Amino acid sequence: PDIDEERKLFxxxxxxxxxxxxxxxxxxxxxxxxxxxxxxxxFINDIEMSLKKYEEHYFKKTKEKTGIQLKLF
Length: 73
Fold this sequence. Notes:
two-stranded antiparallel sheet, 73 residues, alpha+beta
């Protein structure tokens, strides 16, 4: 893979932000039935620390709620 091209695409995507930009990623992802560890983009490390704010959020899996299907017509 062309790392320079990836870096350019990352930069272009960042310049589209109007006021705030949020980077999110998962630490694990299931791919073709296998659980794989994932990491954030290495390009995030190139951003000046004073411009970043790191927050960690954990979301618990909840049971799907069953409800009544509403009719549109």
